[in-house]
Inverse folding.
């Protein structure tokens, strides 16, 4: 099991549920034989003195990592790593060291961050669902959004009575 500290942050008025990409986390990935990683710019991590933030996405499958890398062709900070290559592993390990005004995050989300998002964005969720669906949300119905990363972007999945909606979290955040 990969264990990391809970990290709930709000950067640039954007909710950031991602864990910092630490030396310990990188070691856990290597121990679990995760070998492929993609770095992308991560605007949710920029705040305070941090002027550049990156999201490190992990993949067991090289083709999935390549798909992600190719999908972000306009990202000037994108990079792909295969830790089977010692030089690439060392380059990625350096991403775990916070630099001057630079911080890297992983795509892992702690369940506590899910609860925080649910509580913090409850009204946003209700407003978005009322304006964009025909779901019956009367009475004591509670919706539990599920956060996930896809190709370096934060998404939310909302399900109710067998229906499911997937969207960029930004849509919900701005509702």
């Amino acid at each position: 099991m990969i264990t990391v500290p809970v990290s709930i942050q709000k950067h640039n008025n954007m909710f950031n549920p991602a864990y910092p990409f630490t030396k310990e986390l990188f070691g856990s990935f290597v121990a679990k034989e995760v070998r492929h990683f993609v770095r992308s710019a991560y605007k949710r991590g920029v705040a305070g003195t941090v002027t550049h933030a990156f999201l490190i996405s992990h993949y067991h499958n090289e083709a999935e990592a390549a798909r992600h890398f190719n999908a972000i062709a306009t990202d000037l900070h994108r990079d792909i790593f295969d830790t089977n290559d010692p030089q690439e592993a060392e380059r990625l390990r350096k991403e775990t060291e916070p630099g001057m005004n630079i911080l890297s995050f992983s795509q892992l989300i702690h369940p506590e961050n899910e609860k925080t998002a649910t509580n913090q964005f409850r009204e946003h969720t209700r407003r978005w669902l009322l304006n964009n669906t025909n779901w019956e949300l009367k009475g004591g119905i509670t919706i539990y959004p599920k956060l996930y990363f896809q190709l370096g972007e934060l998404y939310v999945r909302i399900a109710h009575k067998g229906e499911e909606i997937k969207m960029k979290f930004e849509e919900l955040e701005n509702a």
Notes: Residues 1-8 have pLDDT under 50 and may be disordered. DSSP finds six helices and ten strands in the chain. Strands lie at 9-11, 14-16, 18-20, 36-41, 52-59, 79-82, 102-109, 146-150, 153-160, 163-168. Residues 39 and 56 are 5 Å apart (CA to CA).
